Amino acid sequence: MAQFDERGSPAAGYAVDSGWLITPLRVIEVLFDTLGMTIMTLAVAAGLLVRGHRRAAIFTVGVMVATTLTYTVIKLLVGRARPEWQLEDALLSSKSFPSGHAAATTAFAGILIVLVVMLIRRSVVRRLLYALIGLMVVVVGLDRVLLGRHFPSDVVGGVLLGMGMVALGLAVYNPLPRSHAEQLPELAPTPFPSARNLAVVLNPSKVEDVETFRGIVNTMAVDAGWSLPVWHYTTIEDPGTGMAEAAAVAGADLVMVCGGDGTVREVCAELAGTGIPIGIIPAGTGNLLARNLDVPLFLRAAIDIALTGQDRAIDMVRVTGDGIEDGTHFMVMAGMGFDAAIMEGVNEEFKAKVGWIAYVVSALKSLMFPASRLEISVDDGEFTTHRARTIVVGNVGYLQAGMPLLPDARIDDGLLDVVLLHPRRFLSWIPLAFRVLAKRPHTDELVNRMTGRTVVVRASADTPRQLDGDSIGPGRELQMECIHGRVLVRVPR
After folding, report:
1. Percent of the chain at pLDDT above 70?
2. Which residues contact 13 (CB under 8 A, 6 or more apart)?
3. Which one of 3, 181, 466, 468 is separated from 400 by 20 to 30 angstroms, measured CA to CA?
């Protein structure tokens, strides 16, 4: 190690003791010290727990605690002194080998990589995150040498230790969620046992590797006691209706649908009233129906719930209007105005690369979409006149990131919830956002709410419209009727 470190004046030349670089190096040192790493670890673990990834949270805390204990013991056993040329500011007197900063940061980076593999589907986003995580390790390693806190071999030893602790953690504890069925008592056997025939409707554009996904579903289905699934692939011409019909005609006892809200909508509309349960595998950008049904976004966990969960009857909404085909439905929400302009303005190629960020960019462009004059009738009542930048009619209450746009909406109450938003100026979006997030119940011209089984909306001019996040083109009317308990879906027990 002495030869590697070039102990003496050459190694001392790496360190800095003056100049502008000292401040950023000291900031990095403090951010990634024991307290900083503890805060980051707890933040990641808390986020995982909120999202229902208990085992991943335990894995995160376990690896970081084990890494800290291990490098502390090794420091005491090796007893290597700090370099004589370390920065005198906040002088360190503890032992030098291995670098605790490097070990903890590398272990944390390894944990983040495991979580990225688990939870991030888009390859472009994954590669970007891998690069940022790797850069974090390099920056912290350089920081230890440039401040003179460690010899280069201390940093290399810390990096290897951190990598080894992550590998050991994966060997002894699986961070993936346990099977849904293993955590709960078995359901009582049905007096009419089925043949357990399974069909899968897949939008192939929503998964990176179709064959790998097929292998996962096939294996999990057989392990759960189902037959090997019959696979149906959506096309541009048929986004799911024909595939769902074919599955029903063939006698499927369960239909799993993997895709975005649009694909899910088509399958649910076709299987409505058949009594065939639908397992939702969320693979889109919004996945709003899955989010509001507490179906996890982690694909394996969603597949598990589809195979072993319980059935729940939910509402669907029939839609008519100018330019809308007969038999059109939505499951999540419909909108006219600003929110539909967002969907209309999304660049599909950009969306395929960055996901929900494409909606943020489109929203910023459409933020001051002009207000429309609207007439609204609820439950066949008289039309009332309003002005709004957007109107949303929802079957569920929460948008992405848990935004409670319609907090009183329930997907199985037989009612539709309506919200009109009319921020007059750019800055009016701030109090509007506060009221939405705080679930303030009072209504006025800024935020107005209504509830009913049927809702008719008429605009004074052609206005962008959307169903479940899909633009359906401009028009002047939406007529919506909630059909109570029409669709059977699989949800967590």
Report:
1. 90
2. none
3. 181
Distance set, CA 427 to CA 119, 367, 437 (Å): 35, 11, 16
Structure tokens, 137: 């390790």
Residue 294: both structure tokens together: 């507490």
Task: For helices 123-146 and 152-172, give the axis angle rounded to 10 degrees.
Answer: 140
Residue 433 and residue 349: Cα distance in Å, rounded? Answer: 29
Residue 189: its pLDDT value, please? Answer: 52
* Three-state SS annotation for the chain: CHHHHCCCHHHHCCCCCCCCCHHHHHHHHHHCCHHHHHHHHHHHHHHHHHCCCHHHHHHHHHHHHHHHHHHHHHHHHHCCCCCCCCCCCCCCCCCCCCCHHHHHHHHHHHHHHHHHHHHCCCHHHHHHHHHHHHHHHHHHHHHHHHCCCCCHHHHHHHHHHHHHHHHHHHHHCCCCCCCCHHHCCCCCCCCCCCCCCEEEEECHHHCCCHHHHHHHHHHHHHHCCCCCCEEEECCCCCCCHHHHHHHHHCCCCEEEEEECHHHHHHHHHHHCCCCCCEEEEECCCCCHHHHHCCCCCCHHHHHHHHHHCEEEEEEEEEEECCCCCCCEEECCEEEEEHHHHHHHHCCHHHHHHHCCHHHHHHHHHHCCCCCEEEEEEECCCCCEEEEECEEEEECCCCCHHHCCCCCCCCCCCCCEEEEEECCCCHHHHHHHHHHHHCCCCCCCCCEEEEEECEEEEEEEEEECEEECCEECCCEEEEEEEEEEEEEEEEECC
Tell whether omega for the bond before 98 is within 30 degrees of 0, i.e. cis.
Answer: yes
CA 490 to chain centroid, in Å, comes to 19
3-state secondary structure 40-61: HHHHHHHHHHHCCCHHHHHHHH
Structure tokens belonging to residue 405: 């746009």
Amino acid at 351: K
Distance CA 450, CA 457 (A): 12
67: its two tokens:
């890494």
CA angle (350 as vertex; 349, 352 as ends), nearest 5: 65
* Residue 186 to residue 347: CA distance in whole angstroms: 46
- pLDDT at 488 > cutoff 50: yes
Q: Is 81 exposed, middle or buried (0-12, 13-18, 19+ CB in 10 A)?
A: exposed
Tokens of 262: 């649009």
User: How is residue 9 written in tokens?
Assistant: 């004046």
User: What's the pLDDT tens digit per position in 205-248?
Assistant: 888 889 999 999 999 999 888 999 999 999 989 989 999 999 99
Per-residue pLDDT of 250-276, as tens digits, reads 999 999 999 988 899 999 999 999 999
Using the structure block, give the residue that is written with the tokens 């509007």: 432
CA pseudo-torsion sign 441, 444, 448, 454: positive
Residues forming beta bridges with residue 219, ordered by sequence position: none
The label of the residue with tokens 């994954």 reads 126
